Amino acid sequence: QLRSEGIMLLPDPSVLELIQDKGRQKDFYRDNGFPTAAYQHFASKNDILMAIEQGKLHYPFVQKQCKEGYDGRGVAVINSNADLNKLLDVPSIVEDKVDLAKEISVIVARNANGETKCFPAVEMEFDARANLVDKLLCPARIPVRIAIEAQQIAIRLIETLNMVGLLAIEFFLDRNQKLYINESAPRPHNSGHHTIESSLTSQYEQHLRAILNLPLGSTQILTPAVMINLLGEPGKQGPVKYEGLYNILAMEGVKVHLYGKKQTRGFRKMGHVTIVANTLEEAIIKADNVKQFLKVTACSPN
User: Fold this and answer.
1) Looking at domain 223-301, does it have CATH number 3.30.470.20?
2) Is the pLDDT of residue 288 over 90?
3) CB of 51 within 8 A of CB of 40?
4) Kindly report the CA angle at 129 between 168 and 95, in degrees rounded to 5?
5) What is the CATH number that goes with domain 38-96?
């Protein structure tokens, strides 16, 4: 309705509609020649079970519900018959499980003039229990040619979408050094939070520059960085309590961002911490110390 009234909406609603549906998103990658893991569409859990029985689907595979999946929800990793109880009974896509070496992300910006700029690729380490990013490393520890290829794919994708704004593209990198697009998000992204401290231009400033059709800012890295997501401790629910906060605030190069959520629960995103240092190795050591001290728990009832 707003668009019909002549109001400019960025990103365009057609892009949002496409990306909100993982099935349509995968079809777009396939139809436009972008690298993505082989997949099939399924309407229900029974259809998946039938495909396995008929030999049309083989282990291991990953099921992703088409709509409303986020932050690790709506994903089932199926390695064998023992995992079939994890199947989701919703419209979904089922992908061949990639033999992963790493998962990386590239954020690209584009303004209405067609100018594009990418942030350097970052490397993501996941909490296997929640399928959420646990730690992010900038820059990614990958060959230069892979970093360049990922940026080239990101630019081609935002141009093919004819999108204005910020687009985050998550990639699988397999053990043969081949890239596959996992999924994308048309907005500032968890994989770009570190840019607040570590880049000449943060992802938030870049987003504003893009949608206001201003010259895009430099994405040069000022310092290596590690970003840690603050997740609620499993088994803890209720009014939030941050244990060890005093200790980590005394550490040089440690920047804490709390999201103001009053209630915690297991694996809920409650904030993030960015650690900057002279080298990535030093930042990783500091990040491990932060993880040792800082825990997101719940206040005990009176």
Assistant:
1) yes
2) yes
3) yes
4) 55
5) 3.30.1490.20
